[in-house]
Specification:
By secondary structure, the chain is of the alpha+beta class. The chain contains 13 helices and 22 strands. Strands 10, 11, 14, 15, 16, 17, 18, 21 and 22 form a nine-stranded antiparallel sheet that branches. A hairpin with a 2-residue loop joins strand 15 (265-275) and strand 16 (278-285). Helix 7 (126-133) runs antiparallel to helix 8. The protein is globular, with a radius of gyration of 21 Å. It binds adenosine monophosphate (AMP) and glycine.
Length: 423
Amino acid sequence: MKVLVVGSGGREHAICYCVAKSEKADKIYCAPGNAGISALAECVPIGAMEFDKLVAFAKEQQIDLVIVGMDDPLVGGLVDELEAAGIRTFGPRKNAAILEGSKAFSKDLMKKYNIPTAAYENFTDPDKALAYLETAKFPIVLKADGLALGKGVLICQNLEEAKEGVKTIMLDKKFGTAGNEMVIEEFMTGREVSVLSFVDGNTIKTMTSAQDHKRAGDGDTGLNTGGMGTFSPSPFYTKEVEAFCEKYIYQATVDAMKAEGRPFKGVIFFGLMLTEDGPKVLEYNARFGDPEAQVVLPRMKNDIIEVMEACIDGTLDQVDLQFEDNAAVCVVLASEGYPVSYEKGIPISGLEEFDRHEGYYCFHAGTKFDGDQLVTNGGRVLGVTAKGKDLKEARANAYAATEWVQFANKYMRHDIGKAIDEA
Ligand code: AMP
Ligand code: GLY
C-alpha cells in the first residue's frame, strides 16, 4: 500500500513510525513532514492546508490511504475533498470534526445528550457576555469557540480579568475568527486525563490513557503550550473512572454525533477532568493528541493500518485493540523562550544514540536539515520518549535519554510524570 500522512509534528512522526512497522505499507509519504520523518517517509513539500495540491498528489501517486493528523485540515474539510476524489482517508469529515472545531457546538452536544461537562453559556455578543459575568462565580473559564492552537482558553480569577478576557477574545480578536463566538464555563478542579479512541461511526475502542503537561514551566507554572511532555498510562485513570466514562461519556458521544447526522470516523480525544463529582469532559479533539500520541502509539500492539481501515469500513467491532503492559514517558525538548519567542536554526547532535537503544524514540517536531546538518526549526523541537516496565522506570529512562541530545538553547521541564509519585 501507498500511504500519505498529512502533518509535520511529533504526532505525525509517531504515526509514521507505526505505519512504517505495518506489513501493509510499501511506501510512505508525508506532507510536509520534517527532518525526522524523512528517515521513514518521503517528505513532499505540500502544506497541510493546500487541499488542491494534496488531492492532486494523492491521485497522481495513487495513494491507497491518507491519514490526516492535524486539526486545521480536518476542521477545514480535507477528508471530504479527498473522499470526493475517491481516495480512502482516515479522519473525520468536516461535519464531524466540528466536535473539535467549535467549542460552542461540543458544549451544546454534551448538554443535549447529558454527557457530563462543566456548566456553561455560549455568547456571540460581547455585551451579553459582559452582563453575564457581573453575576458569575469566580474563578471562571473563557474559551474562544474555534481552533486557537490550544491557547484560546483563559482562566480568570475575578471580574476584572474576565472583562479583559472578553475583550481579548471577542473585540481584539487575539485568536482571530475563533473568537467570533465564546463559551463561558464553570471552573473545575481535579486531575486531567487524556483518553484517545478509535471510532468507526458506531463503535468506539479506547486506547491506553495518558496525561499531558500543558504549562511551560516546572510545577505547572508559566504560559500554556502545545504540551511539554506526557506519560502513559495515567495511574489516576482507575477501573472505576473507566467504567464511569464508558457508561456516560464514550459511547454516548459517538451515538450523539450519529444522531445529529454527523457520524464520526477517526480519532476522538477526550480531555477529561476527574472532579469530586466524577469525570467530566473538558474538551474534545478530533485527532491524536500531541504529545499524547508519542506515548500511546509506541505502546500499541496492533497494526495501525488495520485499525484505521476498520474505522473507515465500519468494522472496528472486529478489532481487538491491545496495548503493551508497560509505561512510556515523553519529555519535550523545546527552544528556550517557547512559547513566546525563540531562536531557530541551531545545530542538534546526539540523536544516533536512539538507534542503539531499544524502547527509546526521538520524535521530531520542529527540525529541518540545513545541508547535512540537523537544526532546530520550531518551539517544540523533539519529543524524547522511553518505555519502562512501569512509569517510574519509563520516566528515569526518558530523562536519561534527554542527556544524549544537545542543542544550544535546549529547554525542558524537569517534572514530567512527577504526579505519578502521588498515585
Ligand atoms: P481545553 O483546550 O479546553 O482543554 O483547555 C485547556 C486547559 O485549560 C485544560 O487542559 C485545563 O487545564 C484548563 N481548563 C479548561 N476548561 C477548564 C475548566 N472548565 N475548569 C478548569 N480548567 C479548565
Ligand atoms: N496535547 C494536547 C493536544 O494535542 O491538544
